Amino acid sequence: MTLAFSIRPTVADDWEQVRAIRLEMLADTPLAYAETRAHALDQPESEWRMRGARGQTDRGTSLVAIDQGGRWIGAMAGYLPDAEGDADDPVPLLVGVYVAPDVRGREFGVTDALLAGIEDWARTHGDTLALHVHEDNARAIAAYRSRGFELTDVTVPYNLDPAKLELEMIKRLGS
């Protein structure tokens, strides 16, 4: 099935749509994100404007997929985490991945189009894109594997439940 949609960076004036899709994401797959729905609901307009302004910054990008009717059907972001230890060149990190349930799957192309945009941005910062995925999110792990990501041996505690882990996955990016 062919679905007509466009991909673009978010801007501060998108704050209401940024908020709406974030709440949709958190309701759909709560364990996939480092924020609770209750926390998101409590955020002021200024926070949502700041999140929208992340569309294109020196250290990150935030992309959205919009269908022909103006509905936001997906979002992904990438950023450069602060360097840790001796790391001078942090690896770009993929975050905030969401595609509306009714347009998930390769036949719609939303995930692949958003990911291509994030990968293009990440290539300007190196040849690797990393992500952290909750250990219990088998659907996401499978989707990332099918798009060239591989599990590493690195794990980090899931910030909303430190008894759970997030698994690191990386993808080598071609030029």
Structural account:
There is one protein chain. With 175 residues, this protein is α+β, with helices and mostly antiparallel strands. The chain has a single domain, classed as Gcn5-related N-acetyltransferase (GNAT) (Aminopeptidase). The chain contains five helices and eight strands. It has helices spanning 15-28, 37-41, 45-52, 110-123, 138-146; strands at 5-9, 56-57, 60-67, 72-79, 93-99, 128-134, 150-158, 161-172. Strands 1, 2, 3, 4, 5, 6, 7 and 8 form an eight-stranded mixed sheet that branches. Helix 1 (15-28) crosses helix 3. It is globular and about 40 Å long.
Q: How is the secondary structure organized here?
A:
Layout lengths: L4 E5 L5 H14 L8 H5 L3 H8 L3 E2 L2 E8 L4 E8 L13 E7 L10 H14 L4 E7 L3 H9 L3 E9 L2 E12 L3
Helix pairs in contact: 1-3
Q: Which features would summarize this protein structure in a list?
A:
175 residues; alpha+beta; Aminopeptidase; 8-stranded mixed β-sheet; 5 helices
List segments where confidence is low: pLDDT < 50 over at least 5 consecutive residues.
none
Helix content: 25-40%
Number of helices: 5
Q: On the 0-100 scale, what is the average pLDDT?
A: 94
Specify the overall morphology.
Answer: globular
Q: Would you list the SSEs in sequence order as H and E? A: EHHHEEEEHEHEE
Kindly report the name of the CATH homologous superfamily. Answer: Gcn5-related N-acetyltransferase (GNAT)
Main sheet attributes: strand count, strand direction, barrel closure: 8 strands, mixed
Q: Give me the CATH architecture, please.
A: 3-Layer(aba) Sandwich
Going by helix content, strand content and strand pairing, the class is alpha+beta
**How many E strands?**
8
CA-based gyration radius: 16 Å
Q: Into which percentage range does the β-strand content fall?
A: 25-35%
CATH topology: Aminopeptidase
Distance between the termini: 30 Å
Q: Write down the domain tally.
A: 1
**What is the CATH class name?**
Alpha Beta
